[in-house]
Amino acid sequence: MKFENASEWLLFDLSTAAIIALSVMIIFSTLIVITRISGLRTFAKMTSFDFATTIAIGSILATISIDPKVSITNGAVALVSIIAFQVIFALIQRKSEVFRKTATNKPVLLMTNGKILEDNLANTNLHRSELIAKLREANVLKFEDVKAVVLESTGDVSVLHGSKDVTLESRLLDFLEPSKSKKE
Predict the structure, then answer these.
(1) Which of 5, 64, 94, 151 could be cross-linked to 75 through a Cys-Cys bond (beta carbons 3.0 to 4.6 Å apart)?
(2) Burial grade of 138 (CB within 10 A; 0-12, 13-18, 19 or more)
(3) pTM of the shown model
Protein backbone atom coordinates (compact mmCIF):
# COMPACT_ATOMS: atom_id res chain seq x y z
CA MET A 1 0.00 0.00 0.00
CA LYS A 2 1.27 3.40 -0.91
CA PHE A 3 -0.03 6.45 0.92
CA GLU A 4 -0.41 9.65 -1.02
CA ASN A 5 -0.40 11.78 2.11
CA ALA A 6 0.13 11.35 5.83
CA SER A 7 -3.58 11.46 6.66
CA GLU A 8 -4.17 8.28 4.62
CA TRP A 9 -1.65 6.52 6.83
CA LEU A 10 -3.85 7.23 9.86
CA LEU A 11 -7.16 6.28 8.25
CA PHE A 12 -8.88 2.96 8.95
CA ASP A 13 -9.81 0.90 5.91
CA LEU A 14 -12.40 -1.71 6.87
CA SER A 15 -11.85 -3.97 3.85
CA THR A 16 -8.06 -4.04 4.34
CA ALA A 17 -8.52 -4.66 8.09
CA ALA A 18 -10.88 -7.55 7.35
CA ILE A 19 -8.40 -9.10 4.89
CA ILE A 20 -5.61 -8.77 7.46
CA ALA A 21 -7.72 -10.31 10.25
CA LEU A 22 -8.76 -13.20 8.03
CA SER A 23 -5.17 -13.71 6.84
CA VAL A 24 -3.94 -13.86 10.45
CA MET A 25 -6.56 -16.47 11.39
CA ILE A 26 -5.88 -18.63 8.36
CA ILE A 27 -2.08 -18.47 8.47
CA PHE A 28 -1.93 -19.10 12.23
CA SER A 29 -4.31 -22.06 11.83
CA THR A 30 -2.06 -23.35 9.06
CA LEU A 31 0.99 -22.94 11.29
CA ILE A 32 -0.69 -24.84 14.13
CA VAL A 33 -1.51 -27.74 11.79
CA ILE A 34 2.03 -27.78 10.39
CA THR A 35 3.49 -27.65 13.91
CA ARG A 36 1.30 -30.53 15.09
CA ILE A 37 2.46 -32.61 12.13
CA SER A 38 6.17 -31.76 12.36
CA GLY A 39 6.43 -31.90 16.15
CA LEU A 40 7.49 -29.79 19.09
CA ARG A 41 10.97 -29.13 17.76
CA THR A 42 9.53 -26.63 15.30
CA PHE A 43 9.88 -23.85 17.85
CA ALA A 44 12.58 -25.34 20.04
CA LYS A 45 15.77 -23.36 20.27
CA MET A 46 18.06 -26.38 20.18
CA THR A 47 20.53 -25.00 17.64
CA SER A 48 21.27 -21.74 15.89
CA PHE A 49 19.52 -23.22 12.84
CA ASP A 50 16.34 -23.76 14.89
CA PHE A 51 16.56 -20.18 16.11
CA ALA A 52 16.92 -18.90 12.53
CA THR A 53 13.94 -21.04 11.50
CA THR A 54 11.81 -19.48 14.24
CA ILE A 55 12.77 -15.99 13.07
CA ALA A 56 11.99 -16.89 9.44
CA ILE A 57 8.58 -18.24 10.44
CA GLY A 58 7.88 -15.04 12.37
CA SER A 59 8.87 -12.95 9.38
CA ILE A 60 6.57 -14.92 7.09
CA LEU A 61 3.69 -14.62 9.55
CA ALA A 62 4.22 -10.87 9.85
CA THR A 63 4.41 -10.38 6.09
CA ILE A 64 1.27 -12.38 5.40
CA SER A 65 -0.60 -10.73 8.28
CA ILE A 66 0.21 -7.14 7.30
CA ASP A 67 0.56 -7.19 3.53
CA PRO A 68 -2.73 -8.03 1.82
CA LYS A 69 -0.86 -8.33 -1.49
CA VAL A 70 0.86 -11.53 -0.32
CA SER A 71 -1.37 -14.55 -0.83
CA ILE A 72 -2.12 -16.87 2.04
CA THR A 73 -1.33 -19.82 -0.21
CA ASN A 74 2.17 -18.51 -0.94
CA GLY A 75 2.66 -17.92 2.77
CA ALA A 76 1.53 -21.44 3.59
CA VAL A 77 3.91 -22.84 0.98
CA ALA A 78 6.75 -20.81 2.51
CA LEU A 79 5.90 -22.07 6.02
CA VAL A 80 5.68 -25.69 4.87
CA SER A 81 8.99 -25.32 3.01
CA ILE A 82 10.83 -23.84 5.98
CA ILE A 83 9.49 -26.39 8.45
CA ALA A 84 10.10 -29.29 6.03
CA PHE A 85 13.68 -28.10 5.59
CA GLN A 86 14.06 -27.90 9.38
CA VAL A 87 12.73 -31.46 9.79
CA ILE A 88 15.08 -32.76 7.07
CA PHE A 89 18.00 -30.83 8.59
CA ALA A 90 17.27 -32.29 12.05
CA LEU A 91 16.98 -35.80 10.63
CA ILE A 92 20.30 -35.58 8.78
CA GLN A 93 21.90 -34.02 11.84
CA ARG A 94 20.65 -36.88 14.02
CA LYS A 95 21.90 -39.53 11.57
CA SER A 96 25.27 -38.05 10.57
CA GLU A 97 27.96 -37.09 13.08
CA VAL A 98 29.98 -35.39 10.33
CA PHE A 99 27.00 -33.26 9.28
CA ARG A 100 26.21 -32.37 12.90
CA LYS A 101 29.78 -31.22 13.53
CA THR A 102 29.81 -29.21 10.31
CA ALA A 103 26.35 -27.64 10.55
CA THR A 104 26.07 -26.74 14.23
CA ASN A 105 28.10 -24.75 16.69
CA LYS A 106 29.84 -26.60 19.47
CA PRO A 107 29.23 -25.37 23.03
CA VAL A 108 32.14 -23.42 24.52
CA LEU A 109 33.29 -23.57 28.13
CA LEU A 110 33.66 -20.00 29.43
CA MET A 111 34.36 -20.64 33.08
CA THR A 112 35.36 -23.65 35.12
CA ASN A 113 35.87 -24.14 38.84
CA GLY A 114 35.55 -20.42 39.56
CA LYS A 115 38.05 -19.34 36.88
CA ILE A 116 37.17 -17.38 33.76
CA LEU A 117 38.68 -18.86 30.61
CA GLU A 118 39.74 -15.58 29.00
CA ASP A 119 40.80 -17.15 25.67
CA ASN A 120 37.42 -18.83 25.23
CA LEU A 121 35.66 -15.61 26.20
CA ALA A 122 37.64 -13.72 23.55
CA ASN A 123 37.04 -16.43 20.91
CA THR A 124 33.28 -16.11 21.41
CA ASN A 125 33.31 -12.28 21.32
CA LEU A 126 31.89 -12.04 24.81
CA HIS A 127 33.06 -9.44 27.28
CA ARG A 128 33.80 -10.26 30.89
CA SER A 129 31.00 -7.93 31.99
CA GLU A 130 28.48 -9.92 29.92
CA LEU A 131 29.64 -13.15 31.56
CA ILE A 132 29.36 -11.59 35.01
CA ALA A 133 25.85 -10.36 34.18
CA LYS A 134 24.89 -13.98 33.37
CA LEU A 135 26.37 -15.08 36.70
CA ARG A 136 24.19 -12.52 38.47
CA GLU A 137 21.12 -13.70 36.53
CA ALA A 138 21.86 -17.23 37.79
CA ASN A 139 22.08 -15.92 41.39
CA VAL A 140 25.77 -16.78 41.75
CA LEU A 141 27.13 -15.24 44.94
CA LYS A 142 30.78 -16.35 44.72
CA PHE A 143 33.03 -17.22 41.80
CA GLU A 144 34.26 -20.26 43.73
CA ASP A 145 30.73 -21.72 43.63
CA VAL A 146 30.73 -21.72 39.82
CA LYS A 147 31.43 -25.21 38.51
CA ALA A 148 31.08 -24.30 34.83
CA VAL A 149 29.65 -21.69 32.49
CA VAL A 150 28.88 -22.84 28.96
CA LEU A 151 27.98 -20.80 25.89
CA GLU A 152 25.54 -23.21 24.29
CA SER A 153 25.20 -23.80 20.55
CA THR A 154 21.99 -21.71 20.67
CA GLY A 155 23.77 -18.67 22.11
CA ASP A 156 22.27 -19.23 25.57
CA VAL A 157 24.61 -19.17 28.56
CA SER A 158 24.27 -22.02 31.07
CA VAL A 159 25.63 -21.42 34.56
CA LEU A 160 26.22 -24.52 36.66
CA HIS A 161 26.88 -23.66 40.27
CA GLY A 162 26.57 -24.97 43.78
CA SER A 163 28.36 -25.08 47.11
CA LYS A 164 31.90 -26.47 47.46
CA ASP A 165 30.68 -29.92 48.51
CA VAL A 166 28.69 -30.31 45.28
CA THR A 167 30.57 -31.83 42.33
CA LEU A 168 29.75 -31.42 38.67
CA GLU A 169 28.96 -34.65 36.86
CA SER A 170 31.40 -34.92 33.95
CA ARG A 171 28.68 -36.00 31.49
CA LEU A 172 27.35 -32.44 31.60
CA LEU A 173 30.55 -31.32 29.87
CA ASP A 174 30.89 -34.23 27.44
CA PHE A 175 31.22 -31.78 24.53
CA LEU A 176 34.80 -31.05 25.65
CA GLU A 177 37.67 -32.96 24.14
CA PRO A 178 38.82 -35.65 26.61
CA SER A 179 42.26 -34.11 27.10
CA LYS A 180 40.80 -30.67 27.81
CA SER A 181 38.18 -31.85 30.31
CA LYS A 182 40.81 -33.77 32.31
CA LYS A 183 43.04 -30.68 32.52
CA GLU A 184 40.32 -28.49 33.97
Answers:
(1) 64
(2) middle
(3) 0.64
What pLDDT, in 10s, does the model give residues 121-166? 999 999 999 999 999 999 999 999 999 999 988 788 999 998 888 8
Cβ contact 114:143 at 8 Å: yes
- Tell me how far CA of residue 2 lies from CA of 18, 77, 124, 130, in angstroms: 18, 26, 44, 43
* Domains of the chain with CATH codes: 6-101 (no CATH), 105-183 (3.30.240.20)
Are the C-beta atoms of residues 29 and 72 closer than 8 Å to each other?
no
Compute the half-sphere exposure of residue 103: CA atoms within 13 Å on the CB side of its CA. Answer: 18
